[in-house]
Amino acid sequence: MKLIAGFAAGLVFGLGLVISGMSNPAKVLNFLDVFGTWDPSLAFVMGGATVTTYIGYRLAWKRPAPVLTEGFQIPTNRTIDAKLLTGAALFGLGWGIGGFCPGPAWTALPMMAPGTLLFIPAMLVGLWLGGWLSAGGLRGSARPA
Fold it and tell me: Is 83:134 a contact under the CB 8 Å cutoff?
């Protein structure tokens, strides 16, 4: 049941991205171009998502436990460190250059646009590289036998 619910949630999320136009990188880049061809529609999509999330969390937290698992998994780490700031900066740079977040990039993949075909592999390499560096990177690969 968890797998079906996850698939359904992903499908609704992906459809929402496509319907709202967020899988089109030009729409995102126009939102970021405040002094040029500014398109405020992304702000309305973000606002709608924020309100929906707010209501959803309020309803979920009234329950003693989630429907499909034993308990809520709430992050406890509130540290703002160099890794967090570097990751946020890289995410923002990638979003500003490519016009994609990871979700919209996957929904745009079936359109086979050259930007998408470049962005997805670069994103995957970046994710792998980040995990590798977090696990020790160069320091961890040269361990004595």
Answer: yes
